[in-house]
Amino acid sequence: MQTCYHFHGDLTNLLRRRWRGANPIIQPVTRSASIKDVIESFGLPHTEIGDLLCDGRPVNFSRPVAAGHRFDIHPVPAPWDVTRPTLLRPHPLQGLGFVVDINAGRLARYLRMAGFDTLYEPSWDNAKILQVLQLEPRILLTRSLDLLKWKQVEFGRYIRAEAPVDQLREVLALFGVVESRHSLSRCLQCNTVLQPVPKQEILHRLEPLTIRYVDAFSICGRCDKIYWKGSHATGMQRVLEGR
């Protein structure tokens, strides 16, 4: 007897090339394995799965695969509430916090601009990212399918879009973010929360036109960079509003 694996939504696009034209995938069971191991052998990371059914009943990733069963693999539904425990992810996050790897590095700047706590260091390799996730659970955003398959990654997203602004829109849509009350509140360089700074204290660092037209400023306590709301603020608001 054989086992049937039916992939729903856009999950078929993330399968290895040899499997993309076959849905459902029907195979004999030749070894003892969990459904997580089998699904990832097709190329799909567990982080992309929102619901997993065996013969119509919800199961978790540890369910052993046996002949004669049908598995339905559904994508993570939007909006994704990562603060709610589920059968597949019993340990929820306390809120939206991200780690971005170098494959989607430019996205980190946009997320910080939108006010999201986003860790990103170009020098971090996969081992370092996995270490960070073990110490502080976050959502990994990457364009590497293989990185998402590690067991240390409980929450993650394979970023489909290529342009950074489209990647930001993708993330906002996935997590149901329709507005950000904290946009332009973090340092774009190091992710530190900005603090207000009196204009008089930084006059010597400002250009004449900035002194003339801007009154409200913030500063990063870590890298000492000065910020104020300019045309980029309007652009960010348009992205948040989906325009």
From TrEMBL:
One of the Pfam families matching this protein, by short name: Ub-Mut7C
InterPro entries (alphabetical): Mut7-C_RNAse_dom (IPR002782), Ub_Mut7C (IPR027798)
Domain Mut7-C RNAse: 98-239
Name assigned to this protein: Twitching motility protein PilT
Domain Ubiquitin Mut7-C residues, every copy: 6-78
